[in-house]
Amino acid sequence: MIGWIRKALSRKVRQKGNRNSKSIFVMADERLVHVANFGIGLTVCLTAIEIAHLALLHSWNNEIFAAITGLSGTVMGIFIGAKTEGK
Predict the structure, then answer these.
(1) For residues 39 and 75, is the Cβ–Cβ distance under 8 A?
(2) pTM higher than 0.85 for the full model?
């Protein structure tokens, strides 16, 4: 799972200088990759807990949904911020 996260957080940057300068590939920081991996895994686990809560207790848990919403927003912010940083 970490492979596609690392690829999604990496970017190409054009070196400053003349017109014929090459683009270099900047790899994402490993800590950022692991934080994103942890956030996605935690979102999946919380979603499974919410589904189990719905299946077993037949009621919606607002606290779990709030945690899922906040965590998924944080993960999306990581991906958007890593792609637009330095432009």
Answers:
(1) yes
(2) no
